[in-house]
Amino acid sequence: MARIHLGESASMSLGSLWSHKMRTFLTLLGIIIGVLTIIAVVSVIQGLNKYVTTKMSFFGANDFSVSKFSISGLSLKEFREQSKRKDITLAEMAILRRQCRNCELVGAGAGTSRTVKFGSRSLRDVEIRGTTHLDHNIGSVLELEAGRQLRREDEVHSRLVCIVGYDIKEKLFPGTDPMGRWIKIGPDNILVVGLGKKKGKLLGMSQDNYVIIPITTFMKLYGSRRSISINIHTSSQERMRAAQEEVRTILRSFRHRSFKDPDDFSFRTSESFIQLYKNATSSIYFAMIAVSSIALLVGGIVVMNIMLVSVTERTKEIGIRMAVGARRRDILFQFLIESAVLSGTGGLIGIVLGLALAKIVSATTSLPSTVEPASIILAILMSASIGLFFGIYPANKAAKLNPIEALRSEQ
Prior knowledge:
alpha+beta; 6-stranded mixed β-barrel
């Protein structure tokens, strides 16, 4: 045989691996664990990214809010500096309603947490939101299962009415309709006029543990000396960008900021929340992938050691092949193919087990999972590349054997 062809090389490699099943399995174990872990982690990461992109849209594509504090990138020094900013007030909301031509809807919100009671039952750490009668149409639209939205009259007259989330119904009104009932928040009795549709959990945290009251009622009950957020809806992305510049100009003028002074307020959009999530989790994901890659590295080293053992065991066979015409490059190619097939097989098994593990994690926890075809292809290429890389030294050692000395080998 003058040359060893690709098909013949692959066939010989598989035959050699099959003849040592237990050794092959133990060699593959490191690759399998590494690829399994990476696929499972990547599946959960990609699933979380899609889930967060969908669920964390607190504002619509054309909506934004104005707040006292920026949402991300705050050091302790920056937080202290931003704490000195003026509070955003209802008066500024009213000015934006009158003057901002690109703003279709302008509302406002503020929040705190309190214990909510009904009869002998109570629920702690409930989010109490004060909003305007327009806010249910701004950002993520508040859908109701029963009752009505807050009205302008509720806001004007500071009425003691509220919309409750589904957690309030389940925990304070089990088997009972909450509509028309009075709940107690602190010393105040508030009438339930609406029930929000169930949203479920976001990253393990309930989105239904809230009570919404008119913002004027909120200020009356919990004090007006606090900063609010101004929520704005526009008709398009272009209008939103124009509205942000318009709002910036109006607020800077109202606050008497000179052209040298920076803004003393911040804008928030859906994209800013998503970016905050990515910034907060990117280092965690990188660490998880790095730790998983260690198993691949160990698997590659094991492959190299086993291939060295294989070269020693087959020294005489290599000598015979060289004697009948095989070139050094053919021997090199043969062992590289065997190494790549070894690690590639481990990669395929790891992918299947990794996808299965990701599905099990999704089924038993609140973490979603998904995997892109590109990730699977990348995992296969990565595992095969590891085999090629760590197989270079054993293959090169086999190719450099002296044919005469190889034939004399007793192995």
